[in-house]
Amino acid sequence: MADTIRILVMAGSLRVDSLNKKLARVGAEALTRLGATVDLLDFRDVAMPPYDGDDETASGLPPGAIAFKARLAVAQAFLFVSPEYNNSIPGTFKNAIDWASRGDDHVFDGKIAALMAASPGGAGGMRSLLHLRPVLTSLGVWLVPDQVTVSKAHEAFDEAGQFKVPFYQKQVDGLAVSLLDAARRLG
Ligand SMILES: Cc1cc2nc3c(=O)[nH]c(=O)nc-3n(C[C@H](O)[C@H](O)[C@H](O)COP(=O)(O)O)c2cc1C
Predict the structure, then answer these.
(1) Pocket around ligand 1: residues whose beta carbon is below 6 Å from it?
(2) Quick check: 52 and 102 in contact, CB under 8 A?
(3) For residues 45 and 63, is the Cβ–Cβ distance under 8 A?
(4) Ligand 1 atom 3: the closest Cα is on which residue?
(5) Which domains, ranges and CATH numbers included, belong to the chain?
(6) Mind listing the pLDDT tens digit for each residue in 9-30?
């Protein structure tokens, strides 16, 4: 049953008014409607410094990375929502993934994930997902083939944070179904 699936939803932006946080919230709502147990992560709550191997050797993982890993570990599936910075993944997002990949507990391995992106530009952040996909694959994450990209995202949401037109809502709802279906099959 869908209600047994625990999903960590995260946007790779720190901004309070982040378009990707809005998209993540809509995704979390869609998954919740389908019966999933959703944990919506804000990277401000798990802040961590840039990865430094010397710091890791001296002190282990920083508290933010430990907290992030704990939330990854208990999730069966992930929904990554990525901004696009200079055609790729924002450093905040990549840095968090790099920290979380450390250690012997392999919190990504064998999990299922779906990807979304939002950008004011015409490509909707699609190029960040082209780079995020192989990063996650290298960590053992299974990725659902479909993804959602929201172009002109600064015009896409109303004041309540909902899509102004049904087109994107249908896409997010479809991706949520795909993610839960894949998580059930893998689980
Ligand atoms: C350093 C930087 C690089 C960016 N590069 C791109 C880019 O390559 N493609 C794009 O569509 N938008 C780019 N943008 C614009 C972001 O898509 C826009 O700021 C977006 O709102 C960021 O996501 P957020 O709203 O979730 O914080 C860039 C923004 C910054 C700050």
Answers:
(1) 13, 15, 18-20, 83-87, 119-121, 123, 125
(2) no
(3) no
(4) 85
(5) 2-186 (3.40.50.360)
(6) 999 999 999 999 999 999 999 9
